[in-house]
Amino acid sequence: MPRYHDMATVFREKMWLAEPETRDYFAALIEFIYVWEKILNDRLPRDVAPAIGHTEQNLAPFYQHLEQKHHELRAQVGA
User: Fold this and answer.
1) pLDDT tens for residues 11-34?
2) In the list 10, 38, 51, 70, which could disulfide-bond 44, CB 3.0-4.6 Å?
3) How many angstroms separate the first and last alpha carbons of the chain?
């Protein structure tokens, strides 16, 4: 979970640099962290995550978007 918290912190602090379509993924990241924190802190049963389809796969569109933006930006700077 520390890496997810790091991701959320960087996202929050650098939001002003993000493209509008990238900002749309912030809520999904925060929700992912929030639910897993509840599960890991025993405030939700562990079987809730699979029951509601709460997996890292939910973040796949976000990861794909970041990869696409990374490639686009590298192409713009000629790297």
Assistant:
1) 999 999 999 999 999 999 999 999
2) 38
3) 32
